[in-house]
Design goal:
It is built from 19 helices and 13 strands. By secondary structure, the chain is an alpha/beta fold. The chain has a domain at 105-129 and 239-426: Rossmann fold. Helix 6 (160-172) links the parallel strand 6 (152-156) and strand 7 (175-181). The structure holds ligand F0G.
């Protein structure tokens, strides 16, 4: 079946509206700020026609599985393969796609031993085309940006959104504008945005300042915003959960653990789980837990000190720069899904993040620092009894190891936050593998090998 035929044949189910998460207002078109025209809160996408779906959960699961043998672009994409649960493509419309999704689930036997849970897995979103989970949302949002006829798209970013947006904008033939905090994002991510052709502005502020400015910009210029305030992004990011469950043959894990920054991803995963239950595709819910860095712990404080009723913002500081965010836009959505799934919210220290990152690296997998909060958080959730040793746990690794090489190299050389490391002692040293400079002799290499054998 050609890709055009596939689109036409399947474009029968999803048909969406925007719903305000606060007042429930339903609208057909959203303004450039993606906020409710009545109360100003965020919008989400809802599918009124789902009530009239004529499929059984089994037939839908079979359709999705069957598409794996197709070579049509919409089927090869690990996002559009699940298009019945996404905003509908127009007749003959081809999505802007880089064959995103289709990311692996890995077992983590060593980390399982360290933490004491028997069944521990990683869903590695860092294996997406630009190296982070952002691609799964960007394919949907870029497709709708192009359909809306915008010449420019823009985002504020801690790095990964900008890399992803720049790539998808280039593929979709629109221009892109990136606003990043100067000096506070990894050069690897910045280099991606440059190479993909974005106009890249390093602003003398933090991420929250960049996002505030973007909100002003989209109200004053015909620029389409591709931050996760844009609900099309979250629809694409939902497919992480759908694909994960398919990879588990629809056996529901007990826990899914995800890093929290601007809180779009946790909201998207939670929305997917709630929708899958509503559609009868799963019979029980995994608990969805969000982990933040201690220095960027707005959701932790919001839940602990304000019981999720109002946002407590913080001045964010962490070396896990992807989640260096103090005023998360999607906090209300995240509170809702954490509470609705019975999940938890935890914070972890800089040393705990670095240690966990090296442990995930030692599995032959690796991830960027923000992703490692999941393993560090799991250790705490086990300690407090929230996660039981016989339960199954999936860590969502959001970014690739190569996204932040400076962090990795500084860590292994013992140059990352030196003062803290001195106090941290043996557990850090056990996972550190500094490079060794030697004379180019067999003797020197043999001695090194012998020493390593003993350690
Ligand atoms: N992990 C990584 C690697 C990220 O890049 C981000 C966010 C998160 C976790 C947190 O996800 O914001 O949905 O809660 N990065 C954004 C960016 C903010 O601009 O790249 P979230």
């Amino acid at each position: 079946m050609s890709s055009l035929d596939a689109t036409a044949a399947d474009a029968q189910l999803a048909d969406f509206r925007f719903r305000c998460i606060h007042c429930g207002n339903l609208i057909d078109t959203a303004g450039q700020d993606f906020r409710c025209p009545s109360c100003g809160d965020l919008l989400e996408i809802t599918y009124p026609r789902w009530k009239h779906f004529h499929f059984t959960p089994e037939s839908l699961k079979n359709t999705w599985r069957g598409r794996r043998t197709s070579n049509a672009a919409v089927d090869v994409s690990g996002v559009w393969r699940f298009r019945e649960l996404l905003p509908e493509l127009a007749h003959n419309e081809q999505p802007v796609t880089l064959r995103e999704g289709n990311t692996p689930v890995y077992e983590l036997p060593r980390c399982a031993r360290v933490t004491g849970v028997a069944r521990l897995f990683a869903k590695h979103q860092g294996m997406n085309p630009t190296g982070s989970f952002k691609d799964t949302g960007m394919t949907v949002a870029a497709t709708f940006a192009r359909r809306a006829g915008f010449r420019w798209v823009a985002c504020a970013s801690t790095g990964n959104t900008s890399a992803s947006m720049a790539a998808y904008a280039a593929r979709g033939g629109v221009r892109s504008l990136v606003l990043v905090p100067e000096g506070k994002i990894s050069w690897s991510k910045l280099s991606q945005a440059l190479d993909y052709g974005a106009v890249t502005c390093q602003l003398r502020t933090d991420f929250d300042g960049c996002l505030g400015l973007l909100q002003q910009l989209v109200r004053s210029a015909p620029v389409y915003q591709l931050n996760s305030i844009n609900p099309f992004r979250l629809e694409g990011q939902k497919t992480l959960a759908i694909e994960l469950l398919e990879q588990f043959d629809w056996q529901v894990p007990d826990h899914i653990i995800v890093p929290g920054g601007n809180l779009g991803n946790s909201s998207a995963i939670g929305k997917a789980l709630l929708e899958l239950r509503e559609l009868g595709m799963i019979s029980r819910m995994p608990k969805l837990s969000v982990i933040q860095a201690e220095g960027a712990n707005a959701l932790v404080r919001t839940l602990r000190e304000a019981h999720g009723k109002e946002l407590i913002t913080v001045q964010a500081e962490t070396r896990a720069t992807a989640i260096r965010i103090g005023n998360p836009a999607s906090w209300k959505k995240a509170v809702h899904v954490v509470q609705a799934t019975g999940g938890a919210c935890e914070q972890v220290s800089e040393v705990e993040i670095a240690q966990a990152k090296a442990e995930i690296g030692a599995e032959g997998i690796g991830c960027e620092p923000a992703s490692a909060v999941t393993l560090a958080g799991l250790k705490k959730l086990i300690q407090c009894g929230f996660v039981k040793p016989d339960e199954s746990v999936v860590l969502v690794l959001t970014g690739n190891l190569l996204k932040d090489p400076d962090f990795t190299i500084e860590f292994h050389r013992g140059e990352l936050f030196k003062e803290i490391e001195r106090g941290a002692g043996a557990s850090l040293k056990a996972v550190r593998r500094p490079p060794i400079v030697l004379d180019a002799t067999l003797d020197a290499v043999m001695k090194t090998l012998e020493q390593a054998e003993k350690s």
